[in-house]
Amino acid sequence: MTHESLGLVEGSDVDPELGFLVHLADTTGVTVGLVLTVPAGLIGGRLVGVARHFEGLATQMSRFSGQEMLGEAVLGMFRLRAAIQADEHAKRGLPDHGAIPSGFVHLENASLVGPGGQETWLGPWRGRLSEVTGWTFTS
Fold this sequence. Notes:
Helices cover 37% and strands 29% of the residues. It has 139 residues and is α+β, with helices and mostly antiparallel strands. A hairpin with a 2-residue loop joins β1 (32-38) and β2. α2 runs antiparallel to α3 (68-92). The radius of gyration is 16 Å and the shape is globular.
């Protein structure tokens, strides 16, 4: 397994173990509770793969009146991107796990605890792996 196969740049500031967990979530569908330290504070939620994230985002958007088309557009964008990646992998003879290495971490049912201690529910959350300065498992 290489940095590139995990969607990471070698020598980057991304924690390699967290990058591996994200890769597992993206390629196998495994989920796990995490708390991440980011510039805004602590974000807790359930680590999910990129496909599940976009499915959840589209579902959440479709619950709001007038947002159904936006949810479908987001989901369509993800599916198109996944199809392009599968085609590129096939051309290069690489295995396709249905995941798009993105350099992002995806949490569902996420909440932020800011510096003042106030908790804010975020729902589906996506953030740059390179912005995470610490992490731990949670239930």
